């Protein structure tokens, strides 16, 4: 007998992803009354009227988006401490993505939902500059599937960073300035931490301010200066136009999970994402013990299909209205 369809615990709404039947937005867009911000990486320019986030995320927003932060009522949440908010009980836990990144457990009568959002790598892929990912068990798990396709399986982090250091050395020996293109929040701090002062990095302003916040929060970082200062290599986010920097002869290395697809504009590209890869998303989903897994964005359909092939109930949220339950 076919099982009766049960609507997913999260739904798409005008202002982003929302917990069904409650007022909390998990991926807020625009200015909803209440939202949870999982991390400061790529935070929208307009924040919710009231915003749940960790203290470290709020500090990073103060450095990057002070104007947007002043227009929201920030509600700092400490890891592991449950609190009531409207009709929900919420608890945030480390997501292992960037400093201050968080998963949130949402509880109410009949609801035990963990929104994992962006989680970081596991084991030898775990970032050194973020709080370690906490593995949670729940009835329903919602995962973002940025790298939810099977081709996105990444090598150990230190192996990639060793290859980056070789790129820096080779470029300098050739008399060219090494230019690293990577995320200002997450990747930049991992590179600075790994080099540990062996090379001085000239950082774009957004990466420099983020490194200052990391250091103030107790993360050991040294060997970074402002872009206009002297140093061995330059690190800029992907949005910067290199032609405007006037760096002279240079070589470019892009750090991104998309390096597995090939990046033609770079002299070298290395797979150093601060998101979990496909195998890590699958491992987390299986270890959660969730009766239902909701995949979101990116390769949501591919990840959901892979999980269903393992006997798990999985639905891609962005097309849940047209999916049938497994076996139907």
**What's the number of helices?**
7
Question: What is the 3D shape?
Answer: globular
Give the fraction of residues assigned to helices. 10-25%
The total strand number stands at 19
**Average pLDDT, to the nearest integer?**
93
Note the gap between the termini: 10 Å
List keywords for this structure.
seven-stranded mixed β-sheet; globular; six-stranded parallel β-sheet; Rossmann fold; alpha/beta; 22% helix
Care to describe what's here?
The structure is a single chain. The protein has 328 residues and is of the alpha/beta class. The protein has 2 domains: 10-152 and 275-322, Ribonuclease Z/Hydroxyacylglutathione hydrolase-like (Metallo-beta-lactamase, Chain A), CATH 3.60.15; 157-270, Rossmann fold, CATH 3.40.50. 22% of the residues lie in helices and 26% in strands. It is built from 7 helices and 19 strands. The strands form 4 sheets. Strands 7-8-9-10-11-18-19 form a 7-stranded mixed beta sheet, with helices on one face. A hairpin with a 2-residue loop joins strand 1 and strand 2 (16-19). The protein is globular, with a radius of gyration of 20 Å. The N and C termini lie close together (10 Å). Residues 319-328 have low confidence and may be disordered.
């Amino acid at each position: 007998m076919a099982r009766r369809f049960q609507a997913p615990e999260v739904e798409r709404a005008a202002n982003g992803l929302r917990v069904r039947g409650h007022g909390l937005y998990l991926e807020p867009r625009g200015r909803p009354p209440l939202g949870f911000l999982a991390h400061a990486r790529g935070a929208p320019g307009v924040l919710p009227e009231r915003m749940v986030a960790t203290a470290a995320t709020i500090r990073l927003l103060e450095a990057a988006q002070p104007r947007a932060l002043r227009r929201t009522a920030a509600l700092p949440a400490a890891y592991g401490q449950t609190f009531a908010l409207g009709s929900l009980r919420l608890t945030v836990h480390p997501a292992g993505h960037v400093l201050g990144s968080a998963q949130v457990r949402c509880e109410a009568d009949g609801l035990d939902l963990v929104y994992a959002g962006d989680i970081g790598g596991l084991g030898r892929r775990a970032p050194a500059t973020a709080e370690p990912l906490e593995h949670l068990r729940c009835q329903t798990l919602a995962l973002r599937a940025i790298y939810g396709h099977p081709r996105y399986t990444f090598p150990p982090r230190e192996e990639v960073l060793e290859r980056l250091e070789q790129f820096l050395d080779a470029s300098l020996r050739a008399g060219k300035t090494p230019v690293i293109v990577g995320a200002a929040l997450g990747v930049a701090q991992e590179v600075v931490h790994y080099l540990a002062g062996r090379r001085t990095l000239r950082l774009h302003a957004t990466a420099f301010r983020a490194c200052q916040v990391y250091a103030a929060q107790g993360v050991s970082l040294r060997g970074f200066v402002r872009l206009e200062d002297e140093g061995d290599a330059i690190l800029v986010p992907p949005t910067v136009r290199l032609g405007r920097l006037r760096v002279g002869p240079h070589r470019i290395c892009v750090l991104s999970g998309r390096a597995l697809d090939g990046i033609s504009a770079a002299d070298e590209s290395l797979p150093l994402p601060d998101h979990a890869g496909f195998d890590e998303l699958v491992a987390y989903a299986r270890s959660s013990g969730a009766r239902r897994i909701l995949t979101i964005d990116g390769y949501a359909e591919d990840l959901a299909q892979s999980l269903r092939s393992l006997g798990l109930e999985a639905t891609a949220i962005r097309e849940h209205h047209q999916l049938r339950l497994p076996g139907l």
